[in-house]
Amino acid sequence: MSPTVSLVLDLLMVGLLVATIAYAIILNKQIVRLRESRGELAELIQGLNEAMAKADTGVRGMKQTAHQTGEGLQKTIDKAAALRDELQFMIEAGNTLADRLSGFSDSDRPKHTPSRPAAGATRQPSASVAAALRPLLEEAEAAEAAPPPLPRRAAPPAPPPSDDDPDRPRPGEEGLSRAERELLRALENRR
Length: 191
What we know:
Blueprint lengths: L2 H100 L24 H19 L32 H13 L1
């Protein structure tokens, strides 16, 4: 072979080796960057895992709070339904008592439609309400069974009642019988 061909081939080999070395250096730098990025990626993944764990804990806490709040609301709704039923019973008992006291029959009394409790609701009063209304109902029944009073003569004016007199009508109770006043006071005290 001629020396020029050999020199050209050597130069070509040197050029290719220089290009290979340069490419290897560039590739090494990219591998180093990839390794550094891999560490950053691991930190990022670890941060995401921690954020997911916190979010999971937060969701569990929210579910527990929602469950407790729901139970509290249901208890409040149940209490309100019981109070509504007791009030409905007291209104009906008061209407019955008023009918007995006033001497009106159901046909003379103006018709009204009381609101109906929800389906499945009980209409039994609590023991305290029934105990508070029992003396009033007994008194009304006794008054109904008693003979009608004789016509009254003009009586001398009564002395003004003392402040602690339970039979004294309060403002707004004028014209009501004693039983009606006691019923109103029992209902006010029940609140």
